[in-house]
Amino acid sequence: MKSISFYLLFLSIWLVSLAQAQQTRKHYLSGTGSDQTVNWQFYCTAGQNSGKWTTIPVPSNWELQGFGKYNYGFNRDSSKGREQGLYKYTFAVPAAWKNKKINLVFEGVMTDTEVKINGTLAGPKHEGSYYAFKYDVTNQLKYGADNLLEVTVSKHSANASVNAAERKGDFWIFGGIFRPVWLEILPVKHIEHVAIDAPATGSFKAEVKLGDVTKASEIKAQLYTLTGQKVGVPFGGKVSPNQTSVTIQTKVNNPSLWTSETPTRYRVELSLVQNGKTLHTLQEKFGFRTVEVRKRDGVYVNGTKVKFKGVNRHSFWPTSGRTMNKKLSVLDVNLMKEMNMNAVRMSHYPPDDHFLDVCDSLGLFVFDELAGWHGNYDTPTGTKLLHELVTHDVNHPSVIFWINGNEGGHNYDLDPLFAKEDIQKRPVIHAWEVFGGFDTQHYREYNYGIGSYDLGHEIVMPTEFLHGMYDGGHGAGIEDYWEAMWQNPLSAGGFLWDFADNGVIRTDKNGILDTDGNHAADGIVGSYREKEGSFFTIKQVWSPIKIERREIAEGFDGTFTIENRYHFTNINQCSFSGKLVKTAFGTTKASEQSFTVTAPSLKPLEKGTIRANLPAHWQSFDILYITAFDPQKKELFTWSFPIALPEKIAATVVKTEGTGNVQISETDSLYTLSANGMQLVLHKGNGRIQQVKNGSGVIPLTNGPVLQEGVNNFKSFTRRTEGKNVIIESTFDRKNSYNTLQWTIYPSGWVKMQVKYFPGAYFTNLVGVNFSFPEEEAKSVRWMGNGPYRVWKNRMKGNQLGVWEKAYNNASTGEPPLTYPEFKGYHSNLYWMQLETKGQPLTVVTPDEDLFFRLFTPKPIVDEYNNVQMTFPSGDLSFMQGISGIGTKTQKPETTGPMGMKHIYYDYEKEPMRAKVLTVYFNFSGKN
Known about the structure:
Jelly Rolls, TIM Barrel, Immunoglobulin-like, seven-stranded antiparallel sheet, disordered N terminus, calcium, Galactose-bd-like_sf
């Protein structure tokens, strides 16, 4: 029995070793990413910790490990003192590898790379940062012994064109071996590379490059699903002696197609066979899909016209620079999918291989880019790097376009080489240029469309638009842009700039998070992927299920009109849920009830209805929510609809009755009113609050109301009694006091303020009233309204109606500390608010619809073009009926579309019936 067991063990080991001998082996000399590294010896020639041998984790950027100097692209580093990194690593090579072909592979090094094995150059110096390259080191290795790898890395290139394309850009410039390094161990006779073309028709073609096949052989192939089921029949082709490549083909009937919505992939297994013996086996994943550009029409994937909801993405993480890992790739793609994006542009260089793997598996269209920010590679260098780019990324079904440089960084000599290198003949575009049937120009004003986007002849697809800065851009303006793009048949969508803030941890500045001022604070998410308010605006605007605006009024039958904005998915593959909520004021617990929603069969681009199956007593609730889920059960968005309007909620919250009477006294300049332990002092000349207090102390609300962008001409105040209530009001005069203010003081200690006023001009940024309140007193706010994020006039989408709470913070979007949601700013659709302070709380209720409340003023933003323009009223707290938009890095608010323009009020003739009316209740009693 022992001999049989030993024989079986030996047989299994032999079979495993045989299988390994037939397959490519990958032996890492470095780690696999930023989350798994290997220490190498290291010497930096300049900057931090230079001039001494020590160790460094590989892969990494050396600045993040405390070496060298930090450089942002606009900070032109002089040639004097430019850094080099010297690396050494000793590794063992088993004797069993002696009869193998061994390549030394670098996934990415910044920037020029000189490699030695055991003191001998492995090959010519490699110039260019973002491209995988390899050396055949078979004859340089010592087998059964240790080997010394030496790598000299120059942060800047000796090639001026490489520096122009890669080093002089609007992004951080790093140095180092920043992507993995490994040995590729192959049989001597092997499959060197395979390039696949698998269009939606089901035809399959592969160009198989061979290495050292000196005798007659054959390639055998079989297609599989990713779960292992065979697809079709075996196929292959004969290989003549010394033949270096062979093309094999087959056909699959009715394959499942790869799209961003249905990322179905297959696997091909290729074997090099000689005299019945398998010498080498290679596996490659792919997807069946066709990309077609129809000039003066659009982009078609698998015969379906698509619009790209895209974003630009740098490979970047604060603690590791451009060194990433697969977990971070999964995180980023999932965040993009959560925002309902379907595309990503690789700006301004090709990404890690694992990022493309994740785009393949989760479904994102990828625009893969040859580097060139505003400069380009020379033709010999670009030809070599283009070959490396296409060879490396050719089989990813997610990659559907190539981009030859960005914003003038185009080498036109390289354009025809993409088709020569790419078996799939993917389309090629230039970012920010009219080229190849596309107008990809960046950052055009909304109204620029009148001249070109709407009336031109090219397919319009800006590869950058709505350049974010801090809280501006991205969500601010996107609804105007997207609706125009969606309706324009020549629009193929576009790509926001950009995905994440590129804040880097400065090891030379006590670990601060540095975005180089406003240069790198451009993201929809923070450096650590914190979600800003625009994240949720984009999520709603780009939801592939659009629910049209619906007022829930008398006669509502539970139906909502929807539009299917998917390209490949029927709505019956999605699902919906519904919820009714009865809100609660103060500490009372809310109640809720779920209901079902019927999903119809609606093909892409069709409109129809969904029906909420509501209970009979649904009108007793305050808010209705509907959530849509994609076929994978992930939330697309949750919409909220008010059932109870502010007037109804106010009637249940505001208490006017009291046991006592309102007491009033006056001096030459003041009214003093008392009720239920509350005392309110008003100025007789202008009606503004001078002081508020109750039995527990002072409520520091003063100096209001003050009209913003209106004439503060409240005059000639009088007092009168109406039942138990006391009314203090100004006198209307068409000429001198046409704006009026009325205070009503109730026995309960509640107070009503009603302002009737005329906006200051036809074109007005801000409409409403302000008060003073010491910011240092604020602790938190709880409110019923839209939340939890602040809004701008041109960024209203993304929030839900509900009851929200957040603690005070002094956050400035995009700047540390990154605390979201921000406390300060405008908040929409107020019902009630409770401002908790270090002293007395302030409670505010309104019966008015569409009222904004403003909490203090965020830190002013300074940008070199003065475009962001965060416009706020005077004072500290405001109740507004019109607020301002916010600009982007490249545009002022008014050029981002109609929503960013000022408010327009026509035909006010200073008549009371034409005035705007703003009503707010205050509870000054300190009692709910």
